[in-house]
Each structure stands twice: as C-alpha cells, then as structure tokens.
Amino acid sequence: MSNLTPIIKSLQDVMRQDAGINGDAQRIEQMVWLLFLKVFDAQEEELELTRDDYRSPIPEDLRWRNWATDPEGITGDALLDFVNNQLFPRLKNLAADPVRNPRGWVVRGVFEDANNFMKSGQLLRQVINKLGAIDFNRQAERHQFNDLYEKILRDLQSAGNAGEFYTPRAVTQFMVDMVNPRLGERVFDPATGTGGFLVCAIEHLRKQVQNTEQEALLQQSIGGVEKKQLPHMLCVTNLMLHGVEVPSLVVHDNTLRRPLRDYTPGERVDVVMTNPPFGGIEEPGIEQGFPADVRTKETADLFLVLIKHILKPGGRAALVLPDGTLFGEGVKSRIKEQLLAECNLHTIVRLPNGVFAPYTGIKTNLLFFTKGQPTEAIWYYEHPYPSGVKSYNKTKPIRIEEFEAEKAWWGAEVDGFAARVENERAWRVGIEAIQAAGFNLDQKNPHAAEVVSHDPDELLRDYARFQTAARDLRDQMKAILAESLGARE
Known about the structure:
Elements: H1 5-16, H2 23-50, H3 64-67, H4 76-92, H5 102-111, H6 121-131, H7 139-158, H8 169-179, E1 187-189, H9 196-206, H10 212-220, E2 222-226, H11 229-241, E3 250-252, E4 269-274, H12 299-310, E5 311-322, H13 323-327, H14 331-342, E6 343-350, E7 364-371, E8 377-382, H15 404-410, E9 426-430, H16 431-436, H17 456-488
Parallel strand pairs: 1-2, 1-4, 2-3, 4-5, 6-8
Antiparallel strand pairs: 5-7, 6-7, 8-9
Helix pairs in contact: 1-2, 1-6, 2-11, 4-6, 8-9, 12-14
C-alpha cells in the first residue's frame, strides 16, 4: 500500500454519516482508540514470536484479533452492545498496576477517559474493516504511520484546541540534535502532547544501541506527562509504533499539579525537551505548589520554573517559548533572573513568523540551557526564511535542512561555545546588559537593518498599542485642563 491517507479519509467519510459523532474532535478520538487497539495487537504479535512466556493483559475476548479482524464478523446492534457494554467498561477497569502489569496499566490509562461516540453498529463495522487494511507489522506501513500521524495532528488542531501548538518535526529534530541525549540519560517531556520530542529522542538514542541490554536501558529512559486524554492516547500509540513495549512512563496527568517540594533528588532528570502550552491559564490552586515569589497562573511560566527545578546538576534543557516570556515583566522577570542565576542559558534561537502556522502567528524562540552554572552571556541566532520564502504554511513548513547553518555555527558545549563568532545572524549579549535591561531577553539583532513589518498581527498589535498610548495621553491632557480650570475658579 503506497499511501494510508486515502484509507483515513474514507473512514472519516463513513464516520460523518453517524448520528453520534459531532465534529472533527470526536471523529479523531473515535479513530484513535481504534488505532490504539489495532497497533497494540500488532505489537503483541511480535512479542508472542519473540517471547515464549508472553501473556496479553487484555482479556482474550476483548483482543482486537478476536472481535475486529473478521470483515464478516460481529456488526450492527450486537457490535454496539459489545463495544459499549463489554469492551469499554472492562478496559477502563482492568486489574493492572504499573509495576506488575505495566502494559495493562497503559491500556487502562488510555481508555479511562475515552469514548465510543458512534451510534450505528453497521457504520462502526465499516470503519473497523477499513482500518483492517493497514498492516502495522509491515515496516513500510509502519513508517507511513508518521504521515498519517501528522494528518491526525493537523485535523486535531483545526478542531480548535486553543493554546496547543504541535511542534514541527524539523524544530523537534534540531532541538534533539543540539541537546544530544546519550544512552543511559533520563529524557523527560513534562508537556508531552502527542509525543513528538520523545519519538525523536528514541530515534536519536536507538542509533547508540548495540545489544538487548542497551535496548532495555533505552526503553526505561524515556518519560513524560500529558494532561489531555486524546494527545496522551496518540502519544502512547506513537511510542508503541517506535518500538517502546511499555510506554507506561508517559503518564496521563497534569505535571504542574505536583508541588515542587515533593520531587526527590532521585527523580531529577538529565534532559528535558518540550514545547509547553503557552497562552494558557492554570486552574486555581495549581500555583500554590510553587515558591511564593514565582507564583503565576500562566502555564508557560510555571513550566519554566518546573523544568529548572527537575533537572539534575549538569542537566540540559531545550524548550519552545513565545516572545512574551522573553520581554515580560513582573513575575516573568523574577523567573528569568532565577533561571540565569542557576543555569547557563547559552543559546536562544529566534524563529521567524509562521513556523507554527496555521495554529498561531505568535513569534517563538528555542531556549537551550544547562543547570549548575550561572549565565555569563547569551548567544542569539536569528533563523532566516530560506531563499525565496516569505512565510511558512501547511504545505511549505520549516525543513530540517534549514538548520544546517546553526549546526555548523553551534560548537561543543564544553569549550566550543567560546569559539562561536558573530555574523549577520548571530550575536552575543553579556549578562550585565541583560541585568541592566531588567532581564528582558528580547535582545534585537544589532547587525540587522531596521525592517518595517507588514505582518497583519504585528501591525494590529502596534495599532492597539498606539491607541492605548493616545488614550492615556488624552486622559492626562484632560486631567491637566480640568485642574487648570478648577484653579481659575
């Protein structure tokens, strides 16, 4: 099969006919729990071949192979009754714990908030049969799942989940390449989303694996937390397709809910790579788990505090942050001051507009830091559009090849950073200048000519700022005039 996309489109067309499904988000959730069970079953086929003692954590009658694979099998009301009254209740309540039955624990975690929305058993059977055409044990089709996965992400985003921006593969790849996780290190993403950073890290680490013991070490070194049920389900499915047998180290929870003081030294990690949600506000009480001087409800700020805290001394981090965090004041300034005192924020890569299009027009930055030494200077690198490109979009996203210039310039962490040189894209700002600017990290490129922006979002923000300034000035003038008139009377 050359392309999985037509299959997915055709099964979505079938789901559109079902009275129980309302909109893209429900359609995607319906597809993903079915995909999860099919991928889980494909992985079990491999485990049964390689391990004589393998036993499925799923009861025999609930395994995909025993109710879904026969195209002429159970359908109509009988299929609906089985899914709603057998499959879902029993998988949601599997007797499993993360130590003795970790694969069962994964299944239960995936299904705890999942739903079957379809009301037609005949249409559900059609969807299952279309999924049956995909063979996830064939290497070629397993690789094609990456394309399918990207399509699901695009559909998920267009379904309207505000504040969630899925990181383009090229950006994820560049961040992993520069942080360079090594086998034996613990890699963690506290805002896992659908698992892009973890999958990229797995691919990076697997090149270092040479025997079964090292593969077992790799399997235990990847961890994460995801707050929302649907991205978590996608993440677990994606990790299984990338050879992770027990993705129970990716937990369905809110990382920020746990107070910082509860973390023990043994829980610290070597590497954090993440794109935390920005623009979001946490539920009341979450900030109480953080030190009083950095309490805020803003999600991205809390994640920055958390990441700094959970890194081991010498641990490395790479994260995506919006411009607002760089120039923000108040609590943001205190968070940045502490970050620069406790970590070496050695590099900020400034991305151009449109990298996250069509999800957001917010300008974003990649921050790279190492815990344990204070920052003496920050290197900035302004990532340009490729020649002939004025903006990125769905059909022309940012590509990994575009980061070759950064990679050539980068240097090694131990002593190579000192060998970096300024150019029209790269410049260095000492800590004294950052402190004098009130810890404003939004430092402009001194080599670039002043450019007039024609970006509509930026122009509207400028217009709003000028309007506010004009109103303030008008109010001041009114007050002065009123005071003057009052004095005359």
